[in-house]
Each structure stands twice: as C-alpha cells, then as structure tokens.
C-alpha cells in the first residue's frame, strides 16, 4: 500500500515536471512567434512602401515608353537608349552615393540623435547636387558620344535631344533618393507610396493630354515625364519641412557646409559598392550583342531581364528595410535585435524568392507570349527560364545582405567584394563559357550568376563572423562623434 502511494506521488511529480517543461516550451514558442510577428511588422512598414514606390518609378518609365512609341520608332529607340544606358549609369552613381545617407540617418535615429538627420540630409543634398552637375557633360554631349560608339546618326541626333530633356530628371533623383532614405530611417515612408500612386495617375493623364490630344509629340511626353519625377519630390519636401518631421527637421543651417569630408568618403564608397552591382547586368547585354543570332538572343534576354527587373523591385524594398532595421538597432545599442532582424528578413525574403523561383522555373517559355509572337524568341526564353529562376532566387538573399552592409556602414569593404566577385570572377567565367565553350548567352549568364553566388557566400561569411557587440560600440562612437562635431560647430557659429 505504501509502495503504491509512493509510486503515485513519484508519477504525479514526474507528470508535473513534464507539464512544467511543456509549458516552458510553449511559452518560449509563443515569445518567439510574437517576436517574429513584431519584427515582421517593423520590416513591412518600410519594405511595403519601398517596393510599391520602386514599382511606380519603374512604371513611369514604362508609361513614357508606351506614349513615345506612338510618336515614332526613332524617338522610341532614342529614349530607350538614353534611359537604359546613360540615365541608368548616372542613377547608379547617384543611388550608390545616396545610400551613405541610409547609414547616417538610420544609426542616428536609432541612437535618438534626431536633430542629426536633418543635417545629414542637407549635407547629402550638397554632395549629390555637385555629383549630378559633374555628370552633365554626358547629357550635353550625348550625340557625339553615341556616334563615336557606332550608333546610327538619326538615333544619335534624337538621343541628343532626349538627353537634354532628361537633365531635370537627374536632379530629381537627387531629391527623391535622399528624401526616401531620410524618411525610411524614421519608418515614415508611407507618404512616398501615396505620392507615387498619385503621380502614376497624373502621368498617364498628362501623357495622353500632351501627346495624343494636343499632339505636342516628344516635347509633350518629356514634359509629362519631368513632372512625374518632380511632383512626388515636391510632396516629400512639403512633408519634411511642413511639420510632419519636427523632431528631425529643424530648418536649413550653414552647419551643413561644414565637415563634408566624412559624408563624401562614405558616399564614394557607397557609390562604388552599388554602381558596380547595378552595371553588372548591363555588361551581360553588351556581351550578348556579339553572338550569332544576336537579335533573337537580345530580344529573349531583354524579356528575361525585364521580368527580373520587376522582381528586383521587391528585393530592393527588402534591402531598404534591412538597412533601416540594422542601422536603427545598432544606433539603439542592441546587437541581439540587429541579428534577429537580419535572420527574420532573410527568412521572409527567401520564402518569397523560392515561391517566385518555382513559378518562373515551371512557367518557362509560356512567359514570353506576353511580350512577343516570335516562336524563335519564345524558344530562346524557354531555354533561359531556368537561369531567370535562379537569378530571382539569388535576388531574395543577396540584396538583403547588401542592406546589412549599408546599415552597418561596411560600404568600403563590400565595394571590394563586389569588384572582385563580379569583375574578376563572374565576367571572366561568363566570357569563357559564352565565347570559348560556345554556350553563348547562357554561358555568359551562368558565369555572372556564379559571380553573384560567390559574392553572396562572401557576404554570408562576413555577416555570420561579425562581432555585433563590437559593431554596436563602433556605431555609438561614430554617432557620438557626429553629434559632438555638430555641437562644436553650433557653439563656434554662435560665438
């Protein structure tokens, strides 16, 4: 009897221990789930408007192309050439240099040095406006540049006219990129998405009014394009200066003209890091032009890169979100939160990328019928579809890791990584596979995918081996130095 009672008590004790263990496990799982949900909300607050805004900006170009295409074939070819080659070259430099502002604003906001954000924004305006001005000769001398590169005279002449119209667009990007990064650091970029949506509607209406209704031709289309880039900028500037950012915008100051060198250095390293990445796909198109049946291969490649470009807008949205979250948490002093944010965004982005990978991998050549009726082009797209699918899969991870680098301020390190992986690994392997082994466009693309894969692996190693507690210390010292310099300049100016 006593033995039975003892066994029951022991069993009850064991049951209670098991119940306690189960409760602890359930509690841990619930905490982890709540933590993931909380982090996901913070990420999507930045990522969703960023993705939509990029789709809208991409859409402005598509709308302009559609209306210019009704004006004439020469005008369409000229606009496409200037926009995809010259303007994209300049955008790469401006966007790259502007990304330094993401580091500065994100870390300052996380450290609650709110007054520094407005100062960083003004300094970035100065540096990028000078940069844009230095790029103007490309647009002023477009015709002789294109003729020297062997372009047809009529297209080169028309491209010279188009490029002059696009000069205001170059300066529009300066305001657009900087305001977006300033607002993203504060998770206030929903206003950008609203402005982008309104702008698309206005652009469609004005393009129809000026090119179809009033028949102003190319001038009408270009006026509408310029307005499409500047209307959201005006809205963003009103939002920033109109009292909606009162903690971070305290007005214009002459302090913005001082201590520009740290901004210049960070902007230059950021510019190199992102520019070499953005130009990578352009080199793929240039290498394809020398193959047999180049027209069919370029058409098929253009369709694939167009799809890849649309999907890249999602990846760039996650890149912005990653940058903001990492910079904010490092500035706040939380290494654990920064690491958790990285893991969360990699999981979310990878899941979306895997779904898209499966979709495009199995859809294959049927995808091409949206863009062409040529059976030869459809067959070539069918052959390239697996490479497109793998590109989309890698896009789900690689830009996120670039966002980590920008948020942590590693631009100079990643610039060397990008140069080595893309231009010393990817392109040489692509040339060897494409030209020596006669795999043509598939060989070039495989080589460039290998370069991207190597770069992704290197960034994964750098991110995983990083001492994030040390990164917090470095970030706080950096923010403290910026703040002290600002205070010293304020004191000397007051004196």
From TrEMBL:
GO cellular component labels: membrane
Compartments reported by the entry: Membrane
First-listed, main subcellular location of the protein, grouped into a coarse class: membrane
UniProt entry tagged with the keyword Acyltransferase: no
Any GO BP annotation: xenobiotic detoxification by transmembrane export across the plasma membrane
UniProt keyword annotation of Transmembrane present: yes
InterPro entries: MATE_euk, MATE_fam
Membrane-topology descriptor: Multi-pass membrane protein
Keywords, in A-Z order: Membrane, Transmembrane, Transmembrane helix
GO molecular function terms attached to this record: antiporter activity; xenobiotic transmembrane transporter activity
UniProt similarity note: Belongs to the multi antimicrobial extrusion (MATE) (TC 2.A.66.1) family.
Name used for this protein in its record: Protein DETOXIFICATION
